[in-house]
Design a protein that fits this description.
The chain is mainly alpha-helical. It contains five helices and two strands. The protein starts with a helix and ends in a 15-residue tail after the last helix.
């Protein structure tokens, strides 16, 4: 359970950084930020696999690049479902999704799969 909370906070941080950096992405408050992160997690868990399966032929034809369009569309979908979270177009959606991915990736270096801060010490013998 703690891992889900930590991952949700990481996504919320990514959305917050995207709102801070990208002019077309706006979040009205902390509550909206947390709701957007929760909704993004649910959309990525349930809607994304279905979309990936339905668009598999075009994804194969574009060598996987169509997944970028799907992810940006899902970022925009989450924004359209929440009142205090707005994305003004396709380019801000794409850039916002990219910022969330980069923040999640960097945080993933420090957070283990169970949602804990983990340090691995390797000794050479």
């Amino acid at each position: 359970m703690r891992g889900i909370i930590v991952r949700t906070l990481i996504i919320a941080a990514g959305i917050g950084v995207a709102a801070w950096l990208i002019p077309g992405v706006r979040v009205d408050g902390l509550g909206t930020l947390i709701l957007a992160a929760l909704l993004m997690g649910l959309v990525n868990a349930f809607v994304r696999p279905l979309l990936v399966l339905l668009t598999l032929p075009i994804t194969v034809l574009t060598f996987g690049l169509f997944l970028i369009v799907i992810n940006a569309a899902l970022f925009g979908l989450v924004a359209s479902l929440l009142d205090g979270f707005t994305v003004t177009g396709a380019t801000p959606a794409l850039l916002g999704w990219l910022v969330v991915v980069v923040v999640s990736w960097v945080a993933g270096w420090f957070i283990g799969p169970r949602g804990r801060y983990e340090v691995i010490i390797v000794e050479r013998r």
